[in-house]
Amino acid sequence: MFIRIIVATDLSPASFAVVGCLGALKAYGAKECLLLQCLTFREAASTALSYHTEPIERILEEQKGIMEGQGFTVEARTVVGAPKREVNRIAVEEDYSLIVVGTQGQSLVVEKLLGGVAYGILNSTKKPVLVVPVEKKPGEDNACAPVSRCGFNDHVLFATDFSEMAENAFRYVEQLVAHGARKVTLVHVQDRVKLEKHLKARLEEFNSLDRGRLEDLKQRLLKKRASEIDVEVCYGTPFEEITRLIRERNAQLVVMGTQGRSFAGELFLGGVSHNVARSSVAPVLLIPAVR
Description:
The chain is α/β, with parallel strands linked by helices. It has ten helices and twelve strands.
């Protein structure tokens, strides 16, 4: 399923935490890893002027050793260029099946990835992106630990607005189940903002319709031999309800489309999925639209 993966790194403590928690991806077929460091032209010039690249190479080799210790075949590579462009280019040209990025920490994870680079990757990627949250160690400056929820095949939460793009993301959930995901929670959130003003009186009608849709998805997963499936229809602000369920249900992996349409035809899962990725305590697998 995810045989070849790219892990974006900037060699920070946060990126060490990311590479340290990916072993469970092997349950989904991950074997080969490209540990990719992208330097901007300014960073590359600064490094060249210092005449000293040994620390960078040493740290990259250390991260490579961590991933090899988890059973991956690893190539470590440094490239120069705009990170968001280079990550996506290499993923497509070399046919990688998954891009992994982090969500907290220094440099890459905060300023680059969840700033311009992360949105650049998510908005233009043709490949799934796994966004991994990193936990800062209390009382230790810049020290980070792998997220505690990284048993990727223990409990998958799938959030849907029933759009075509969400359907595309659900096909990945089917594959996750086929590869042994033990439990799945299927979630749809009735958006309070969209319903409150004129359609609140029809809430039960919408709930009944959407529970039926979720039940149809449940039956598809049962055919893949899923062992436990829960169905949730919530009312409120979509990303808040989804992140609440992630916490309360102890989800280990969240799957969402990167775009979608609400019943009113407005962009839905694009903004929601990005907000979930920013605040989730569990890794979020974002599936792009078919292009």
